[in-house]
Amino acid sequence: MAQQVVNGAQLMCSFGTAPSAMVVTPENMTNANKVPAATIMDNIPMKNIMPFAMCTTLSNPQVAAATSAALGVLTPQPCIPVTTAPWAPGSPTVMVKNKPALTNTCKLMCNWGGVISIVSAGQVTVNTA
Question: Is the backbone peptide bond immediately before 78 cis, with ω within 30 degrees of 0?
């Protein structure tokens, strides 16, 4: 079953070297378990999507230039995500401020070819029984 993604969710890029935490700002004015809930439009680099440490794909111009300067030895560079499209597919049934809610099954494409996925939705269930 898909989970609603909230502020603090753990993300990973297929070309990144470390996970990143998602930032959901409160303009949606909707919470899930008292934490800001995400939509498919929470896809803005350096606002919602933070760097994944170092980028390892040659389709990133910075990585390509550094690798060329190192005579073909792959030289990772700082990861600055470049995302222009929304997360896909989004929830087919849950809307947040007239936008599909973001679920842990959604993916986001980076312009450098990486696929950003949700490792943890950010919600924790505690059983008290």
Answer: no
Structural domain spans, the chain: 10-52+80-120
Rounded Cα–Cα distance for residues 129 and 120 (Å): 24
Nearest of 108, 95, 111 to residue 30 by alpha carbon: 95
Alpha helical stretches, state H, 1-129: 61-69
Contact 79, 62 (CB under 8 A): no
**Residue 49 to residue 21: CA distance in whole angstroms:** 8
Per-residue pLDDT tens digits for 17-60? 999 999 999 887 777 778 899 999 999 999 999 999 999 999 99
pLDDT tens digits along 102-126: 999 999 999 999 999 999 999 866 5
Count each helix (H run) and each strand (E run) in the chain, helices first.
1, 10
